[in-house]
Amino acid sequence: MKILRAILIVTVLLMVSSCTKDASDPKTETTNKEKQEEAAETAKEKAEAEEARLAEERAKAEKQAQEKQAAVKQSQEEIAKSLGLELITVGRVVDGDTFVTSDGRKVRLVGVNTPESTTRHEQYGKEASNYTFSKLNGKQVWMQKDVSETDRYGRLLRIVWFSVPTNDMNENEIRTKMFNADLVLNGYAEPSTYPPDVKYSNYFVQFAREAREANKGLWAFGSQGTTKGDLDKSSSGTGSGSGTSTDGSTSKVPSSGSDTTNTDTESFKNCTEMRKVYPNGVPSTHPAYEPRHDRDKDNWACEQ
User: Fold this and answer.
1) Which of 4, 34, 217, 222 is most buried when burial is the number of CB atoms within 10 A of its CB?
2) Cα–Cα–Cα angle for 157, 163, 164, nearest 5°?
3) CA dist., res. 200 & res. 205, Å (int)
């Protein structure tokens, strides 16, 4: 339309100019007017044809873009199905390694452990929780099961991907697209392996060593980090310091038992007696810690 308007304006100006010059000759004036009208009509037709051509090209380009987008979506859905990925929306973040989906399912991230920030507090726990909130809350992400469906608390055990990977064992894609790995790489979580969910455990240990060498996040507080994980010297088990829970599922943290460096110990008959002295319970590094009082195997006995 812009081209058409420009042509019409130029044509009108030419007509006015010609009429001024030949005003004294009626015959010439009539001839010129006819020629100008013919020229204007031709120009209009050309402008309309050009507009139609451009509109056709735009429509063709839009159609191709839509077809390409549909093909990408279909390919992504096929890959997601082959990898067992489920698209969900995060409804609420509980802490650094736990969230609730928009349809009410509670999810525990597999293979990693962030410092506590809810029932008790560990150093860097709040930072880890805030980081997970900023990355996941209200977002659409893809969940992937390793082996176990749920842990003993009924929470889904899942790997979380920001986007669908082409190859879920490609290290670069794990680094850039997987949230579990992101937590470890940036020092918000320690690797925490529980068989049979060991698909990515070697990567998580590798990433944790990188973060520890760079003093990132929780590793800035020391070589043992701020919570329990595979790199702890006291961790038991095989491979990368992994442990197996009593029900074969992933728990909150490895059940490595009490710290063997403690020589002075305290013993309580039960948690009722212990809470009289230690109202909030005790960690595994405390002399009063006993595995029999740690029923959920999270290295904290008799917590409230």
Assistant:
1) 217
2) 80
3) 9
Distance of CA 261 to the CA centre of its chain: 39
Q: 3-state SS of the chain? A: CHHHHHHHHHHHHHHHHHHHHCCCCHHHHHHHHHHHHHHHHHHHHHHHHHHHHHHHHHHHHHHHHHHHHHHHHHHHHHHHHHCCEEEEEEEEEEECCEEEECCCCEEEECCEECCCCCCCCCCCHHHHHHHHHHHHCCCEEEEECCCCCECCCCCEEEEEECCCCCCCCCHHHHHHHEHHHHHHHCCCCEECCECCECCCHHHHHHHHHHHHHCCCHHHHHCCCCCCCCCCCCCCCCCCCCCCCCCCCCCCCCCCCCCCCCCCCCCCCCCHHHHHHHCCCCEECCCCCCCHHHCCCCCCEECCC
Residue 133's closest CA among 108, 96, 101, 181?
96
Structure tokens at 269: 């008959």
Instruction: Determine how many CB atoms are found less than 10 A away from the CB of residue 80.
Output: 18
The model's pTM is 0.60
Q: Would you state the torsion angle of the CA atoms of residues 224, 149, 160, 81, taken in this order, to the nearest 10 degrees?
A: 150
CA–CA gap between residue 115 and residue 141 (Å, rounded) = 23
- Which pLDDT tens digit goes with each residue over 11-30? 656 665 655 555 556 777 78
> At residue 10, does pLDDT exceed 80?
no
- Per the document, the length of the chain is 304
**What's the one-letter identity of residue 70?**
A
Q: What are phi and psi of 69, to 5 degrees?
A: -60, -40
Nearest to 288 by CA among 261, 262, 254, 256: 262
Lookup: tokens for 67 = 């077809």
CA distance 123 to 221: 8
Average pLDDT, integer, range 174-188: 98
Is 101:62 a contact under the CB 8 Å cutoff? no
